[in-house]
Design a protein that fits this description.
single chain, alpha/beta, FAD/NAD(P)-binding domain, Enolase-like, domain 1, 30% helix, 23% strand
């Protein structure tokens, strides 16, 4: 027997539950299918647990620096990993249970747990049951990518999911991948007390960023005792009496690193392989991401893809914005588009990197006449007073239109202060509007008008 609904939602990540709320509020009969944990990547294996660990690691780091602030702590600073994990688990459980309770109590919504797969373009199978609807929304998220690498199948390794299950401290954690996820875990576990080595195939860390930011990030991590090995062209693995031997084959340094644990942090992939998309005729790209248009519609009428699985954003905030776009277009007659979204994100090492819009390399490639302003965090009063002066502020402007093209704030509060620039870009206002603002002292944000007042032409 087939059950009929007005809409089916596959996945209870960041987009699915909110969409269920809007659709049911509009009087629609909706079913939401979740095969595992409510809340998706962010709540269970992403932002929520990792930022909870970042907070615990920051507390340990600050305690070790207590004397710098005139605070004397007698005895060693110890980290109880079981209590750290218990705290993270409690935060995750509270968030996950809140999402599930909200959904199960939602009027007009049927919640099912199980693996959903397409039988046709308007029908899903969950176990022995069939469900049909004229509108289907896919919000299945993604997971760590584990590519074929020499020797990898012969050793034990961790991903961003399995490392969260650990309640003990690695003796030496080797992080393979020098980008956002890898660097966050590297600093977390170094601050917890582990020896940490980061192995990156490319010539520098976080290659998506400009070279000056990559260098500043590396300097921050190395100052805490993290070993960085870049240019690791031939990464391979082998069992070792002390754990895992990782061949790095770098241009400098020893050719092999032996760690007690290895964390793979080399990208993500979508959870789309088991959805039966071929039976619905839904197109995907070569990496398995569902192909969508500017309004998140797939090539099959009546099917949308939201969140990490569509390859149009890999963040909680972009997944939620996907929901906003779809809901506004369907229920309000709007014409919102993904291409209107201003790219913004953060790297949550400490101090964090807040990023919006174009990098310097991207701005230069656009061929526009440019203005650029920079300031080291050593000249920011708030950073000096906090004793956290690492990093810099960098802002790029179109010299002709006076619009802000992009910015980066690597430093204390950078993930918050960047929003003033994000708001100006969204408001499509000239940078001079923000230049004459009167921000609060002492904050990181107060230096943004100062930087904007010191913009200089960027030479080709």
């Amino acid at each position: 027997m087939t059950q009929s609904f007005d809409a089916l939602i596959v996945g209870a990540g960041q987009a699915g539950p909110s969409l269920a709320g809007r659709l049911t509020a509009a009087g629609m009969k909706v079913a939401l299918i979740e095969r595992h944990l409510f809340g998706g990547t962010c709540v269970n294996t992403g932002c929520t647990p990792t930022k909870t660990l970042v907070a615990s690691a920051y507390a340990a780091h600050l305690a070790r620096r207590a004397a710098d602030y005139g605070v004397i702590i007698s005895g060693a600073i110890d980290v109880d990993m079981k209590r750290v994990k218990a705290r993270a688990n409690a935060v995750v459980a509270n968030s996950r249970n809140g999402v599930e309770a909200w959904l199960r109590g939602m009027e007009g919504l049927t919640v099912m747990q199980g693996q959903a797969s397409f039988e046709s373009a308007n029908t899903l199978r969950v176990g022995d049951e069939l469900f049909t609807a004229p509108q289907i929304f896919i919000n299945v998220g993604g997971r760590a990518r584990v590519p074929e690498m020499p020797g990898l199948r012969e050793v034990n390794y961790l991903t961003n999911t399995s490392i969260l299950a650990m309640d003990s401290l690695p003796r030496h954690l080797v992080v393979v991948g020098g980008s956002y996820i890898g660097l966050e875990f590297a600093q977390i576990y170094r601050r917890f007390g582990a020896a940490v080595t980061v192995v990156e195939k490319g010539p520098r860390l976080v290659a998506r960023e400009d070279e000056d930011l990559s260098a500043a990030i590396q300097k921050i991590l190395e100052a805490e005792g993290i070993e960085i090995r870049t240019g690791a062209e031939c990464i391979a693995f082998a069992p070792h009496a002390d754990g895992v031997a990782v061949r790095v084959d770098c241009t400098e340094g020893v050719p092999e690193v032996v760690g007690s644990h290895v964390l793979l942090a080399i990208g993500r992939q979508p959870n789309t392989a088991d959805l039966g998309l071929d039976r619905a005729g839904v197109a995907t790209d070569e990496h398995g991401y569902i192909t969508v248009d500017d309004q998140l519609r797939t090539n099959v009428p009546g099917i949308w893809a939201l969140g990490d699985c569509n390859g149009r954003g890999a963040f909680t905030h972009t997944a939620y914005n996907d929901f906003e776009i779809v809901a506004a277009n369907l229920l309000e007659g709007a014409a919102r588009r993904v291409s209107d979204r201003i790219p913004a994100y953060a790297l949550y090492i400490d101090p964090p990197l807040g990023r919006v819009g174009m990098t310097e390399a991207q701005a230069r490639a656009s061929g526009r006449p440019l203005l650029m302003g920079t300031r080291p965090m050593t000249k920011v009063s708030r950073a000096i007073e906090k004793g956290e002066t690492q990093g810099l502020i960098k802002i790029l402007v179109d010299a002709e239109t006076q619009r802000i093209l992009g910015a980066a704030i690597l430093g204390t509060g950078g993930d918050e202060a960047i929003h003033g620039l994000l708001d100006m870009i969204n408001a499509d206002q000239p940078y001079t509007t923000l230049q004459w603002a009167v921000p609060i002292h002492p904050t990181v944000s107060e230096l943004i008008p100062t930087v904007l007042g010191e913009m200089q032409p960027l030479t080709p």
